[in-house]
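Interim report to the steering committee. The following record documents the input for 5-dehydro-2-deoxygluconokinase (297 residues).
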Amino acid sequence: MKALFIGQSYIDVTFLSETMPEGDEKAIAQDYAVSFGGNAVTAAFVCAKLGISPDLLCSMADDWLSRMFRDMAAKYSIPIHSAKVKESSLSFIMPKDGKRAIVRCRDNDFLHPVPDLNLAGCQALHVDGHIPEAALHYAKACRKHGIMTSLDGGAVRENTEELLDYIDVAIVSELFCEQLGKSAEDTLEYLRAKGVKVGGVTQGEKGLLWYEAKSPIKRLAALSVPKERVLDTNGAGDTFHGAYVYGYLANPKGAWEDHFKLARSASAHAIQFLGNEASLPTVQDLDNVQKNFPASD
């Protein structure tokens, strides 16, 4: 095991449509994509596409959608460890004008205890908090063994406060800040006080506000992707997480600013494609993005 990612799995159905039908109306979409989905799940696939396949502990059912998901994971050599549920989860995603509307059908009623995994060789843990018991269990275990721990703080969840005591790198959303009732800057100071070594708040077109250790808060500007090139922003944050974890695994002694620059290139690539699988970047894609899209002011 090179790394362990933990989160809720989905099958995503992403479609482009000018209208959303109501009542007895019907509409024909211009395009669609079916792929894997979920925060830490998408991050795991990004890491694998870039060249380092992590293990993935995620929700799994005994149905045809989970079999489809396992086929997708096998394509990228991602070993799956099951957090057993009765039904697979689905997301229906409608991107439009740089935003996306989402309907989720989620089963997070886990039927069995957290599976006991061998962490030998593991260099990083990345969690999204959607399987709270597993996230906390493995964050504690990884902290004990000196393994880097990373959190996708998309929202404040039931054990987030306790979980943060075992997190080295926490990159959170603006929604996370709102739920805490804090500004982005105050949220970063909260993370620092919790012992998080590297903290950040993703702010879309404004880039990343972040700190490392005792350093002052600084901003990493986003890359300027022309609006006409932006097709689907869903999963861009997940892509960011997967790419910086890859950066760390590829070069554990590298600077976090460099890991985050790699991650912003991955996100800039991803938003130009429909669906999570089509948006997965290669290392060459990241080089091309860095050459073609300047940092915004």
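The chain has a mean pLDDT of 95. The committee is asked to note this result when reviewing the revised timeline.
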